[in-house]
Write a structure and sequence with these properties.
The chain has two domains: 160 residues, D-Maltodextrin-Binding Protein, domain 2 (3-Layer(aba) Sandwich); 125 residues, Bacterial extracellular solute-binding protein, family 7 (D-Maltodextrin-Binding Protein, domain 2). By secondary structure, it is of the alpha/beta class. It contains eleven helices and eleven strands. The longest helix is centred in the last third of the chain and has 35 residues. The strands form two sheets. A six-stranded mixed beta sheet has the order 7-6-8-5-9-11, sandwiched between helices. Strand 6, helix 5 and strand 7 form a beta-alpha-beta unit. It is 49% helix and 18% strand.
Length: 325
């Protein structure tokens, strides 16, 4: 009887151990606040993965640089410090130049164009991610980058001598081409820089303008849709392949839904943030047709320079992108 009891207990214990081993946990690192629409979308993605796998895969989301800094998240996943991560695609440009298609200004002018660019960009990026032991899951854009200005902008001459906020090589190059003085200002310091008179204009989203309450010093906002920077969510290939086939299917299904949901949220926020700027006294205006043509020519110059620097695989994106629809 005692032997039977011990055998039964062993069986229960082994069954419990098997159940525990069947459950996997991924740590997902992101550099953005828990309140960010990107992070909220990831949280929903994690819930849907847990539900879709019957609890066999749990994704723990670590926001606000708590697990790894934004620019170091892809390395953290490659090094096994986290199973999954999210970062802004342009943070990966040094390692994966193809990711720089996101930051070429004045080429993509609508969400429809941004979707088309992403479909052309994704296959090449998937190969680069795979070569680094990662699997790309989905990408979601920030609202488009607009022009915030303390003074009305009618033409290129209105930029000359102004102080333009810059934060990467692209924005520095834009400032130089416009004849503006580049001023390096971190996003958290935008409000103070405006109050101190250290900057006159900047290219960033309406949402960023709202989050930093730029009204007062900023009088005008122009919806130039300069570019649509994307955040990308990815996972260690090793962690993904360790899942059972049905769990992998559930992850990919949830990722596809997160991408659709995220693009919709981004577009809704672009509209609501612009209206909030208006409600706080910022004039929402369109640039002149002449200036629109000028910045489009600048975009073509940027894209040519980028293609030369990246090489043949850049042509796989922009040759079909510029073909007549």
């Amino acid at each position: 009887m005692k032997k039977l009891l011990i055998s039964a207990l062993c069986a229960v214990s082994l069954g419990h151990a098997s159940a525990v081993m069947a459950q996997a946990t991924w740590k997902l690192a992101t550099g953005y606040r828990a309140e960010s629409f990107h992070t909220q979308n990831i949280q929903q993605f994690a819930r849907e993965v847990e539900q879709g796998t019957g609890g066999k895969l749990v994704i723990e989301v670590h926001p606000n640089n708590t697990l790894a800094k934004l620019n170091e998240i892809s390395q953290a996943v490659q090094q096994g410090k986290a199973e999954a991560g999210e970062t802004i695609m342009t943070s990966m440009v040094k390692d994966i130049p193809l990711a720089g298609a996101d930051s070429i200004p004045f080429v993509v002018s609508s969400y429809k164009d941004a979707q088309r660019l992403w479909k052309l960009q994704r296959p090449g990026l998937e190969k680069h991610f795979a070569a680094r032991g990662m699997k790309l899951l989905y990408a979601v854009p920030w609202p488009p980058q607009g022009l915030h200005s303390s003074k009305p902008v009618r033409g290129l001459a209105d930029f000359k001598g102004t102080q333009m906020r810059t934060y990467n090589q692209t924005t520095m190059r834009i400032a130089e081409m416009l004849g503006a003085k580049p001023v390096d200002v971190a996003m958290v310091d935008v409000g103070k820089a405006l109050a101190d008179g250290r900057m006159d204009n900047m290219i960033t989203s309406a949402l960023t303008g709202v989050e930093n309450k730029v009204w007062g010093p900023i009088k005008y906002y122009y919806e130039i849709n300069a570019w649509f920077p994307k955040n990308v969510v990815f996972v260690s290939s090793k962690a993904f392949e360790a899942l059972r086939p049905e769990a992998r299917t559930a992850v990919l299904k949830a990722a596809g839904e997160a991408e659709v949901r995220g693009w919709q949220a981004s577009q809704a926020l672009a509209t609501s943030a612009t209206e909030e700027l208006r409600a706080n006294g910022v004039k929402i205006e369109r640039i002149s047709p002449e200036l629109d043509q000028e910045i489009k020519r600048m975009g073509e110059k940027f894209s040519r320079e980028w293609i030369r620097s990246v090489g043949n695989e850049a042509n796989d994106i922009f040759v079909p992108y510029y073909m007549p629809q």
